[in-house]
Amino acid sequence: MAIEFGSRRETFENYKVYETMLAGRPFKVEMGKMCGLSNASALIRYGETCVLCNVVMSPKPREGVDFFPLNVEYEEKLYAAGRIPGSFMRREGRPGEHAILSSRVVDRPIRPLFPKDMRNDVCVTMTVMSLDPDCSPEIAGMNGASLAIAMSDIPWNGPIGGVAVGYVDGEIVLNPTKEQCERSDLALTLAASMEKIVMIEAGANEVTEEVMMDAIKAGHEEIKKLLTFMNGIVAEIGKPKKSFTPVELDHALLADVYAKHLEDVKAAMNTDDKNVRDAAMLPIMDAIAEEHPELNAADLDLISYKLQKKVVRTWLLEEGKRVDGRGINEIRPLAAEVGVLPRVHGSGLFTRGQTQVLSVCTLDTLSANQKLDTIWEETEKRYMHHYNFPAYSTGEARAARSTNRREKGHGAL
């Protein structure tokens, strides 16, 4: 018995394409064709650079956390540059340093615009699908992520826009090409809303303050044009924002805690020794936990934070002093020494109060270069700066794990 199968062509009824110009090059947004199960998705085409931006939020808040669980992922696929990964498995592994730094650049301007009392997991993913070296995938990803979140049903007070600004041959250049970046005296990344700048990341070859200010103003003007374009898309196809269950302490409970324990917290914090301060806070928090057994660990952490914040603000604004008794114009005691370790090529210890940094330098021949396997043309790196922040440096009893994003980001600074 013959069975006939019927089929029909997918028409993508919600498929939309929007186009504008960004720094003199076409900036195209495609929506409604890919990733239909995301809260929102946008394929950004900037020149011949393509970045797929997706955002997803969990339906329920995460239990037992005292922070907003946001993850921002920037993925560099080597096929975007027509390359095969050089690993034994011929597959991309964990993100490289450049991808991690790019994800942090996007994270910084978007994170503060989410509600502080939301505990639903949110994951923003930007995947570089095709690379045009003259059209920055980081800028395309930042703007695509912003647009995806803004048009989704996820609560967010955006959008924001981003541009790169260079200073080439005495002129300000927006989103400079690869060749212009190599000659530029300024590497500035801006993120902004219509009203204000929300993030600046910059490196420069000693440009003047006037040049820097002009570059920021020029970048902001270009961002305003892009935001007008984004707001038009959101007005046309944006989804209504979801309601969420806010994590908020009961105001009466908080007032009771302030009345009973604020003076004790002031006494506990009036020292320049962090160990003494932490030890003095423990019995206070134990007493609060006994008085209010309904509070979980995350609630107690939040109460501890609010108590300490209230004390710090009061001392700063009313008494002009800081936690360790210093005035607002005083710094902690400083110390510096070199030659701390024998046999290493160089070492130095810097101390400021209870914060210390031990730096160690190693020299080698050029054959020790780090080999890079990325979408960019650079294949090796001769200067490597590694930053480690072990748990014991903050008095935490926690085993060492692999290098985290914060450590890689700080090493790049």
Annotate the secondary structure layout.
Elements: E1 16-22, E2 25-31, E3 40-46, E4 49-61, E5 70-76, H1 97-110, E6 120-130, H2 137-151, E7 161-168, E8 171-174, H3 178-183, E9 186-192, E10 197-204, H4 209-237, H5 251-269, H6 274-291, H7 297-319, E11 334-338, E12 346-352, E13 355-361, E14 370-371, E15 380-381, H8 405-412
Parallel strand pairs: 5-6
Antiparallel strand pairs: 1-2, 2-3, 3-4, 4-6, 7-8, 7-9, 9-10, 11-12, 12-13, 14-15
Helix pairs in contact: 1-2, 1-8, 5-6, 5-7
Structure explained in plain terms:
32% of the residues lie in helices and 25% in strands. It is built from eight helices and 15 strands. The strands form four sheets. The protein has a six-stranded mixed beta sheet. A four-stranded antiparallel beta sheet has the order 8-7-9-10, with helices on both faces. Strands 11-12-13 form a three-stranded antiparallel beta sheet, with no helix packed on it. The longest helix has 29 residues, at 209-237. The protein is globular and about 75 Å long. The mean pLDDT is 92.
Structural class given helices, strands, pairing?
A: alpha+beta
* Percent of residues in beta strands: 15-25%
The helix/strand order is EEEEEHEHEEHEEHHHHEEEEEH
Shape: globular
Gap between N and C termini: 71 Å
The largest sheet has its strands arranged as: 1-2-3-4-6-5
Largest sheet: 6 strands, mixed
Percent helix, as a range, is 25-40%
Stretches where pLDDT is under 50 for at least 5 consecutive residues are none
Q: What's the number of extended β-strand segments?
A: 15
| Count of DSSP H/I helices | 8
Arithmetic mean pLDDT: 92
How large is the radius of gyration? 25 Å
